[in-house]
Amino acid sequence: MSATAVRTIQHRIAGREVAGSSDRTAPVFDPATGAVQAEVALATVADVDAAVQAARTAFETWGDVSVTRRARVMFKFRDLIDRHMDDLARVISSEHGKVLDDAKGEVIRGMEVVEFACGIPQLLKGEFSEQVSTDIDAYSFRQPLGVCAGITPFNFPIMVPLWMHPMAIATGNTFVLKPSERDPSVSNLIAELYAEAGLPDGVFNVVHGDKEAVDALLEHPGVAAVSFVGSTPIARYVHERASKAGKRVQALGGAKNHAVVMPDADLDFAANHLTAAGYGSAGQRCMAISVAVAVGDAADPLIERLEGKAREIKVGPGLEPGSDMGPVITQAARERIADYIGRGEQAGATAVVDGRELEMEGEGFYVGPTLFDNVQTDMDIYTDEIFGPVLSVVRVPTLEAAIELINSSSFANGTAIFTSSGQAARVFQRKVEVGMIGINIPIPVPMAFYSFGGWKDSLFGDHHIHGPEGIRFYTRAKAITTRWPEEAQDAGHHRGHMHFPTAV
Q: Which of 11, 20, 129, 219 has the most other CB atoms within 10 Å of its CB?
């Protein structure tokens, strides 16, 4: 092996590592240094088919496994995630770039969905109605779909997949995961933990790849359902193509999340939380706050506080103690974000803090926190999802104007309001057209026993992800009507009728 050789991250199919049928690979960078730390195999159509066939074979038995046994696997899986939390966080940080505490928080939020899935015996209880008509009972239950697929983004390499596959597997399905090729290693580690928890081979499979693998999953006749999280254009593409192929689809798209700051808000509290929500994970979150809507007299003192907080952020390697914010995922992402900052200045916005001025040693993919004031709604930095550490402040005169501003956006993932007025909060939560709302909470990601999902161009499909809607997405219902006549009964009483049956 040469001194420059790096490891190759392979697929995990039917319980073992598989090199795949192609020599195509993609680089996996260390965002903190800019160096290539691994290569990841890119799946072909044949590789995807092998994973789907393994999942189909496993479904023949896994779909009939008792809910009690499935729950026990989930309990063991949850315990293994907890025990390996530090290992998982380090793997995430090394490939994504986010700081360790952020990576650990991601693991915890994903583990909460596993904890929810541990209650699958209760969650899958059906309905029963006695004597709906004379000597007739009715009941319903839900059954798994078959092979389900997940296509997930780089920004949460463990949390977002954990929103999908524990729900699918606990409800009796088998699963094929296509994680982001930019930070793929943690998905293979999760496959190892599933195996250690006692999950049979083939129930959970990982194929790495690019568009070829995605399209193969969307078209494969053996895949019953597809879950996706990513940008709006790709979410729309996934929804249209998979739906056309007859699959059930939930496709979560992009976001431009607004946080309204009222004059009566605690501005120190608001500035602290907006800073964390705007710059945490270098802004690479679908629930990041990218627009602060300053109402009336809140604007000037809020800007002053946000500037101070932004300049205090320590940017450094995610694995380095003391770092508040790490690099972005790739050099291309850094260049794109820097270009948006330049375009914002050219359009007339005020760059209160310019992240391009950050100076770091080495070749890492760093861009500093950026704060814009006097942003207008026709500027690119307002309309586009930048997916970087850029916080724009828009000034409006009233709460009504703030709500109108938010409702005019094509994105509707999350939003928040900072206020001490219960009435303002109530008006906001009722009038704003967004799927997830925070009251003095900037990133309102629901707990696992609720469901996650936006409106408008932030969601394509009928079901939100995890929680109760996750159960419904990964199962389908059967309704049964029963009667058990006795031979000795009067035959005339049970004579069939030609008219449509009604309750008697």
A: 11
